[in-house]
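Thread: "does anyone have the structure for this chain?"

Original post by V.I.:
We have the sequence but no experimental structure in hand. Need at least a predicted one for the grant figures.
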Amino acid sequence: MIFLIPVIAGVAMLIFLGINIFSAEWFGVLIFTAAVAGGLLHGKKIMKRELAIALILFFLVSFSFSFYYRPAEAVARGQGTILDDNWFSALNWLHDNTANCTVIATYWDPGHFITGIARRPVVFDGASQGATRTFMINGTEVVASRIQDIATTLLTSDEDKALDILRKYRNPNCNEMYYIASQDLLGKSVWWSYFSTWDATRTGEKGDKYSYAIVQRSQSRPVLDQNAIAHIYPLGPQQAFVIYETNNTYQAFLQQGSTLATVGKIFYFDRAGQGNLRTREEADISGLIWLTPDKNAMIFAPPQLENSLFTRMYLFNGLGLNNFELVGNYGGEVKLFKVKFKDPPPTDKVHV
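Reply from O.Q.:
Generated one for you, tokens below.
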């Protein structure tokens, strides 16, 4: 029974560290160590060297569990679910209300979740970001990059161009396709704009990077001489967006030091909840500010993004679009659009 010596020593150490010795992982460590120690010492005269080896082995395994496994386990337990209720509601709606052949188009990140929960095919996912697809168009074989195609549908302001891209990804004899515009794509715009404009013939950067600025309000203060309220959205120590509210109308500026520069467009909600777009023709800075209804945050879209299909779908719920119909808004986080094709679907299977 001499193999119990390292086990007893290990139990004492675990108790000293405040670790539950009856948890499954630690019980396994104790059994493992006892087995190793027993294998070393069974049938032999006790040797200091063998006893030292057993003890060192136990402490090495214990150390690994204490300082690597347990912290990793704690982090994993604290992460919560990856998808929230908004995503689950949207994906379950797709599962329950669309044909099995329906294709879901969006950026690659949620691809595996869509196929796993909604049980619908996607244009691409985490395993196929760089994949291409071969099509036959008017008898000519055409190879297209999936990531560049979908990135282009997000960035382009040409609805017909986006429709031409998406129609290639329909399943044979199936005209159903849905498009997801989700909140996370605001922060990922730097990448989908990059891949949309990616050009292998360019030197250095192969594409252009455009991003939305999402800024929280730091304060609101009265401006007595203008009978207005100034809402401040800081970008840095010497730079901030400033929005003046006067009689339920808004004007937008970019403050740099003590200088105010006018911003071309601001979209805001009035007290009745109606959306309003105000444009200044002589603005110093091009771009669009989209103000949340509670004014706690704003989104600045540079001119390259302000008329993009994604901006029009996500920030404006598809207003003015003819071929993208909003069918579901899930907590303002996930917005689901039905793509309306006017031509019949393909009859032959395309090459994947």
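V.I.: this helps a lot. The chain has a mean pLDDT of 85.
O.Q.: and Residues 213-301 form one domain.
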